[in-house]
Amino acid sequence: MTRAGAVACLALAGVAVLPAPASAQATLANAWMRPAYAGQRQAQVYVDVRAAAPLRLVGAASPVAKSAELVRGDPSADAAPRVVAELPIAGGGETRLAYLGSHVRLLEVVRDLAGGDRAPLALVFVDGSGERIVASTEIVVRGLMPRRPDGGAAPATR
Questions:
Q1: pLDDT tens, 52-82?
Q2: d(CA 149, CA 157)
Q3: pTM above 0.70?
């Protein structure tokens, strides 16, 4: 996804986008999700985030969902995952938003996403000085499409 595409995606989600300073950097890799059907209430997205300096992840958007939220999970704790306003991203390394851990939750999926499909994702970060940074990538859909709750057939995997 181009930066212009990410900005358009975030504008649709109602997120203000400010230019990032040249020194700010966040790189996204390995973004994936399981298949989802149009109308599905939620779908989890997992992604690796690399940052040169500590950041706070404060927002997410994708045109394949009406909105998105950040979820904090700790696979080593008994606490249930919970929606949060931000997630800390460690500087100088990689933070993994992963299955059973912290992740991005897409809400109200607007189109079918079958195995092999790709979808844009934009994440919004804030650095230590308060500057916003937008990083974008493509989500790869992996797996078999679930049956619809109404008993309808799932679309074919692409």
A1: 999 999 999 999 999 999 999 987 777 788 9
A2: 18
A3: yes
Q: Which domains does the chain have, with CATH numbers?
A: 3-141 (2.60.40.1890)
Within its chain, how far is the Cα of 71 from the centroid?
10
- Token duo for residue 124: 């919004």
Q: Checking DSSP bridges between strand 55-61 and strand 65-72, what pairing results, if any?
A: unpaired
User: How big is the chain by its Cα radius of gyration, in Å?
Assistant: 16
Tally of residues, the chain: 158
- 8, 66, 47, 52: which is closest to 138 by C-alpha? 47
Q: Across-strand partners of 43?
A: 106
Q: What is the pLDDT of residues 96-154, one digit of tens each?
A: 999 989 999 999 999 999 999 999 999 999 999 999 999 999 999 998 876 666 666 55
Task: Label the pairing between strands 55-61 and 118-126.
Answer: antiparallel
